[in-house]
């Protein structure tokens, strides 16, 4: 769990968010993000 908490701030980094490989490394494969309109991305 400690590793998850330590890596979470990376998701706020625009450089990490713009890298598909980095996002895939940081997020669970089953993660889905809901947009402001509650649509899945």
Give the low-pLDDT segments: none
Overall geometry comes to globular
Order of helices and strands: HHH
User: How many β strands by DSSP?
Assistant: 0
Largest sheet: none
Taking all residues together, what is the mean pLDDT?
86
Give the end-to-end Cα distance, rounded to a whole number of Å: 26 Å
Secondary structure class reads mainly alpha
Radius of gyration: 11 Å
Strand content is under 5%
Helix content: 40-55%
Q: Tell me the count of domains.
A: 1
What's this entry about, in short?
The protein contains 3 helices and no strands. It is mainly α.
Could you list some keywords that capture this structure?
41 residues; mainly alpha
Provide a descriptive summary of the structure in words.
The chain is an all-alpha fold and 41 residues long. It has one domain. 41% of the residues lie in helices and 0% in strands. The chain contains 3 helices and no strands. The chain has helices at 2-7, 14-17, 20-26. It is globular.
